[in-house]
Every structure is written in C-alpha cells, then in structure tokens.
Write a structure and sequence with these properties.
alpha/beta; eight-stranded parallel sheet; six-stranded antiparallel sheet; 9 helices; 14 strands
C-alpha cells in the first residue's frame, strides 16, 4: 500500500539549475530511504534521466552507495500537464508501483506549467497516495532585467506557485540583484514566501519539508503546445542504417531539436567541444560517447560544463533555442569519428 508519499515539485525556468539541485538533494538522502524522481523534458529526447543515472553510477563506483534506493523515470516531449498529460500519469503510476518511495521529487520542464502539474497531483485518486509538500522554485536573479523572462507567463507562474523561492547562482549576482529578486517576489504577491540563496543548486534538505500552500488557490493557465498525432516515441524507435534519429518540437516561444546516436558511434571530443562552444542557444544538454570517454554537457547562459560519466546507453543531445539552425545536423555529424 502506497500512502502519503512526501512529494515536492522542483521547478524553475530553462538553465536555472534544477537538475543540479536534485543531484545535490540525492546526496542528502537518508540511506534507509527510497526516493523516486519524475523528470519532464521539453524536448522529445530524454537527457536528464541519463545524466542523473550516469552521475549516480559514478558515485556508486567511488562511494559504493546502493543506487537501488533511487528510481528515475522520464516524461519527454513537452509540458507534463498537456502535451504529455496522460503519459505523466502513466509514468507516475509506474514509478510509484516500482519504487514504493519514501519521497517523490518531480521536475517539470523549464517551460512547463507547475499549476497544472499540481492539479494533476492533487486529483482525487492521488489524495491518499501523495502528501504534497513544498514547491521549490529556482530563479536566477540576473534574468529579472530581461523581458524575455519577466513577460513570459510560465516564468511568472513558476514564481506564483512557489512555497520557497531559491535564488540560485548567487555567486554570479551583481549589485542589487538579490534585492531585485526580493522586490520581484513582492510584486508577484509573494512577500511572505521565504527566499533562499545558493550556489550550484546546493539547497539543504530541510527546504523540502512542510506542507505546500500552493494547494490553497490554483488557477490553470490556458496554453497550447505543438503536438503531433501520437506515434512511437523516438526513444523507442530502432536505429536506421544511418545510426541516428533526429526530432524537433516547439511550444512556449521556443523550439527544440534532439538526436539519438547508436552506441556504436563515437564522437571526436575536441571537435564536439568546439562545436558546442560556438553555439548561441538558450540551452543544450547532452550525454555523449567520445573518443576519450563518456561525458555530459550542459550549456546555459553561454557557459559550458563538461562532466565525465562512468556509463551511458547511447549518445543523446538536445538543443532548445528560439530558432533551429538547419546546419546543426551536418555540423554534429562532422564530429563523428570515422573508423
């Protein structure tokens, strides 16, 4: 019997550091607890699940932690609550049945609407199953002078639903940016919402604990995502003779393009790094098999972070941008090692 599982939504806009925060929270997981993580991605290619699994595998190799107490499931392909509404419920039910967790963390895409996610979690059939605790919204205060963020309905909804606002990347803040965050929160009616500042998503476990006030009043935001007729997910399709699959989708003013590459294909690491570093995009995430090992890549705000992983099933890459460059496919292909 699964009953009253403490559940937190970890939300925030693109590139704000949600996945890093979840990885940090997993380090604080009591050893006797089982945690489940449901990750939603805007693009059709699942990256974050592979990234978290790779980081956990690396930690297991060095610290012998039992990763059988951490269960991860992805819902790729748009906002959980609409384009992937039914798949979200199916994935959540499967995750709960598999893991029987002591805590559930849900990470909606940075372009997702947390109010609708909260409404799904608050539905009658989850009433006894889930104990909805604090919703944590990550914000990079440096973005509060950029109208692309402050006029974006999703950005504001993420703040509106917050039980705790986390000003992440505070080590990069300039003069008055901390005050700007506090002022913006007040202007959104969140004067009583605690604000926590942190670097690299490193929040204390205690931030998660406590009942959510977001359940008191929720107003759905009407929105639409481009959504084709249901087909076999790209993550389930066999590789063609070319050895790769590519897919695009769009919504909320952004476009995404993603690739899956057969595990037999290796990339020239130096060529790959050079290509990623020249991109001017909103976000890039990748887990790649290269000539010198397996690496994850995380590009946000023009800053690229490369981390070595111990394992991955295949190379996957996803780019989110306002426009998709038709040359990217050939440029990425040029980074493949010819054997």
């Amino acid at each position: 019997m699964i009953n009253a599982v403490p559940t937190n939504i970890i939300t925030g806009f693109l590139g704000v550091g949600k996945t890093s925060a979840i990885l940090h929270l997993l380090k604080q997981k009591p050893s006797n607890e089982r945690w489940a993580i449901l990750i939603n991605e805007f693009g059709e290619i699942g990256i974050d699940g592979a990234l978290v699994q790779g980081m956990l595998a690396q930690k297991t190799a060095s610290n012998s932690e039992d990763t059988q107490t951490i269960f991860i499931k992805e819902v790729p392909g748009g906002c959980m609550c609409c384009a992937a509404g039914l798949p979200m419920q199916i994935a959540l039910n499967q995750l709960l049945a598999q893991s029987k967790p002591d805590r559930l963390l849900i990470e909606p895409t940075g372009l997702g609407h947390p109010v609708e996610v909260m409404q799904t979690l608050s539905a009658e059939h989850y009433e006894d199953v889930l104990d909805i605790q604090r919703t944590i919204t990550f914000v990079d205060a440096r973005k509060l002078t950029d109208p692309r963020y402050t006029t974006h309905a999703t950005f504001n909804q993420q703040i509106d639903i917050a039980d705790v606002i986390v000003g992440n990347k505070c080590d990069l803040y300039g003069l008055n940016e901390e005050e700007n965050l506090a002022r913006y929160a007040v202007n959104r009616g969140k004067q009583n919402t605690p604000i926590v500042l942190c670097e690299h998503g490193e929040i204390p476990f205690a931030v998660l604990q406590g009942k959510s006030d977001s359940l008191v009043e929720m107003h759905a935001h009407a929105h639409h995502h481009h959504n084709n007729e249901p087909t076999l997910s790209i993550n389930e399709r066999p590789f063609p003779d070319s050895g790769f699959l590519k897919i695009e989708n769009e919504g909320e003013g952004f476009k995404a393009v993603g690739w899956r590459y057969s595990p037999s294909i290796e990339f020239d690491r130096n060529a790959l790094l050079a290509w990623i570093n020249k991109l001017e995009v909103e976000r890039l995430k990748a887990v790649m098999i290269t000539s010198t090992g397996i690496f994850s890549y995380n590009l946000a705000d023009g800053n690229l972070v490369e981390v070595e992983l111990s394992e991955c099933a295949e190379s996957t890459i996803e780019i989110i941008a306002t426009n998709v460059n038709s040359n990217w496919n050939d440029e990425l292909a040029a980074c493949v090692l010819i054997r």
